[in-house]
Design brief:
The chain is α/β, with parallel strands linked by helices. The protein contains 22 helices and 16 strands. The N terminus is likely disordered. It comes from Cyanidioschyzon merolae (strain NIES-3377 / 10D).
Length: 574
Amino acid sequence: MQHVLAGRVGRRTFGLLNFSYLRIGRRNRSHGVSAGMPHEADGTRRRKALDLRTINQRVVAAQYAVRGELPTRAARLQQTLEKGGPEAAALPFKEIIYCNIGNPQALGNPPFTYHRRVMALCDCPDLAAALPEKEREKLFPADVREATERILRSAGLGGTGAYSDSQGVPIIRQDVAEFMNKRDGIHEDSEFAARVKDVFLTNGSSSAILMLMALLSGSDAALSADGTNGVSHGRETRSMRPGVLIPVPQYPIYSALCTVLGIEALHYHLVQEQNWSIQVTELTEQVRQARSRGIEARALVVISPGNPTGQLLHPANMRELMDFAYREGLLLLADEVYADNVYLDGRKFESFRRVLHSSMPEEVQESLELVSLYSASKGLVGECGRRGGYMLLSPGVTNEAREQLLKLASIMLCPNLGGQVMIDCVVRPPEPGQPSYELYQKEKLERYESLRRRAHRVVEAFKSMRGVQCNPSEGAMYAFPSITVGTKALQAAQKSNMPLDTFYCVSLLERTGICVVPGAGFGMHSNEPTSSVPNGSCRFYLRTTILPPEEKLEPVIALLRAHHEEFLQKYPPD
């Protein structure tokens, strides 16, 4: 990619930018819809069951920027490059670099050997028996075969080709429960220990979030302003709409599902100057304002390590949040899918569950409704395509709620078996003395140290650019810089009928092939930061992954730097 930096990036203008695609999906292009469409005898167009006027308008209104406008444009540029010819030759880059989503293996990050061997043998158990003994021991050593046989026995006849229990394969749920107890320092004999019935295996953490949000989205017996079911002392009262407290910056699945399910998204702002910390006073004010508008907060979403912000919450802050959720009667949804991505010296990941049972009063431990999320897509594993995940319910979640979650899981039949097998590989890795242990530990250390170096390098690179601030990436897979530019850039964006952050990100894509996500996709709209900006200046945010492999990272950073300088030269600060 060095040739791109040295060649075309510095010479070409921004004239290539084409923003027309940004309106796709926001209007009904009648000239495209009517062609070949059924007509009545009098020539009028027959009504369609599914068009932008008739389908669920909540779906139309939902936004998911991580796979939104910028990736759509990037995919079209990718098709142009693959097609070749003069149009491809005219582009100032030779490849698309997808930094818009935490998808490690799509950027060349390798899988774990042990995981893939177990997956292969679960799908085709006869593979090992068909090999000569020497080859069998090399490709499918004893611990791989044992893990496979154990999973398949529990899965039953049909193995990975048959439906499992709706909550998932029993032995895998047992392994998850044991893993979570060990991780969180809870003895298996404790009344607060995870049990098999508390574990729901899911198609990634996204399915778990959808199931929980579906339960929160409302009921026929709507809450009233005083907390009753719509009746107070014999008189009717005002019903309350359900709301969910969501952090800003946020991961957009939460606001998207709120829109689709008719839940009010109650945004609480993280404090950038305090390393994106969460202030209970902010939460309290959001709940108060919501109630004044007829909205009852039902849940608090907390993401740690943060996405897109990368911060790691301190246990003291976590205790404050759990006390708040307990007092307000909220479900605490602990999105901890980046638990294995912590890069701070001297600090380890601490889950809400560990802090709850090690330092909170007994009544909070017993009553707090806590759900913990985990995913095989993140961490050091990065097996996004497997769609493996789970949620663990705390003792404070009622049996009635658990039964309704099981009903939702049953409606979807079961999570995919490949994802379940991957989860088992993650929570029950090779142990010391087993044939796969040394290679597994070597790969684990290499992946962790590489991600740690990349997190530091990307943040330092952004901090060295003019007008850019970037908090440390303490965890997760992203950097979330804020960029300050002058009013000339804002005017150019307005002239193009685009938000400033999108204008910059499209420029970056069409000049370098790097696809990132505008900050507005995470709730941080242009010039809406947590601190002031100089007079005459405008601030916006973007999110990029830290996932390009190390051998490609420096060329990517060089492209980011070159584009930023070119942008500032074209639109100089005031």
